[in-house]
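Usage example:
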Amino acid sequence: MGIKVVPRHGSTFVEKLYLPTIAGGLKVTFSHFFQNLKDTSKIKTLSYPEQQPSDITSRYRGVHRLTKREDNTISCVACFLCATACPAECIFIEAVDREDGVEEKMPSKFSIDLLECVFCGSCVEACPKDAIRMDTGIFSFVKKKREDFVVDIDTLLSYKEFKGDKS
Amino acid sequence: MDIATVSIVIINIVIAIILSLAFVPILVWMERRVAGFIQDRLGPNRCHIGGMRLGGLVQSFADMLKLVFKEDYRPDSIKEKLLFTLSPAIVFATSFLTFMVIPFSDDLTIGAKTYMMQALPIDLGILWILAFAGLSVYGIILGGWASNNKYSLLGGVRAAAQVISYEATMGLSIISILIVYGSVNLGDMVRFQGELLWGFIPAWGVILQPVSAILFIITAFAETNRAPFDIAEGESEIVGGFHTEYSAMRFGLFFVGEYVAMSAASALIVTLFFGGYQIPWLNTEALKDNIQTVLISTIVIMPIISFFFARWIKRNNVWPVKDDPRAKETGRLLKVLIFINVLIVLSLALILAFGISSNGVNISVALIQFITFVAKLIVMNFFFILVRWTLVRFRYDQVQDLGWKILLPISIANIFVTAIFVVAFGG
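Running the assembly step on the lines above writes:
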């Protein structure tokens, strides 16, 4: 019950001759080779920098972004919950008083070191205001200096939500 | 020593060097692309010179260049400096010399003289090959020992044991084929295979001696240390085997030597069992008699094949970005293909229009046979590659079991049966 008995191969005479089974294996590999040689378009390999992947979903956990309120101001209230939850300690926040009366505090600096970040998503889970999300769909970031990987608040605010397929 | 003799000797040596040395980048490229296609990947196809990718062939040249310019590093722990340096050279030189007695085409007659179309015009043939095939393992053993490293030594010991056990079977399987051909000269063997059996089957070695052919192919895999018998490298068990301590061009020589050995083994298999340079049903005399028909059919067939080839290039050689130099490659390739076609068809038509002398007939027959030989060589090399990417590596004890308990008795029995058959029916 629940146990599947797999027969042990290699005991019959034909299998002990080796050569017929080897020929079978060669047939399998050659059929793959021949099909792909005839028409390389069936191969799933992407020519990566030129062709971008098309199977990234809206749930993909990419680079972070900071969300905005309906009046186009920052949602973040600089409560430091994300920075506390972060296992890699890569979120750096400096808080100031918020003058427009919507909330008490807002961040003056909010930077994330992408080289330290482990993309666990704990900051998103911790945020009580839904101010930080990882739904940009950005999976590759290439920069020339280490300092450039520390993204600041303006860049984080400028990223847009990624909705499903790029293609 | 007239000009014809000197030029033919030089041409033969150059052909042998091209078929062994210049074939290596092509074989490496073939190996990678075939492996890719077998595993539903693309394989290397990005490297290019001025937009010309040639299907990824440029990549092997880039890799060769990299190996040449890498630092030639030798660990301080190595005491046998001479042997350490010598062993890659032994592997390379022996597998290279094996190629020297393979005939590319039938004996060429120019004027009153006849030339053997092989780099070394000697009659020993198979004996020369056996001598050097056995010698090539010394490079691996000495390299493994001189590396002063347990894993390298294990690799060398494995290679030694394996070659000893398979050399026996290889020699015995060659004996049974020698009984059939009655000669050690490879040229004579190929000429024998140009005849027909009962008037309609080409008398190839694989048809006359199927058991011997299978044994020889299996032992050739073991001799060249290729999968499924590459236990001398055995990277899952003994790091890199005999070439663990080697880097740069020292490793490069091992690497090139392996491919030259594979090519030489393929050439030997083709020569012994698959008719060498002979086109089936068209041996040298038939080719000479029907040279007009052959040339006319070449003029007809070549554009047709090229048309399908061009269609294949157009469909498969694409590059996703339009303004990249690589996107222009397909057009250039098609132009080159058309140019080659026009050139060959025109020259053949000119030859047909003006008629050919007997020397010209001989030379064109030699050329046709050479092309046949290269085609067969490529197919056999492809078979080597296909087997490598199909079968898994044997366990060490299984290799020895297979060699001593199965292959050796079969080869001895095969000799007896063949000898009885030849004695009873008079060959």
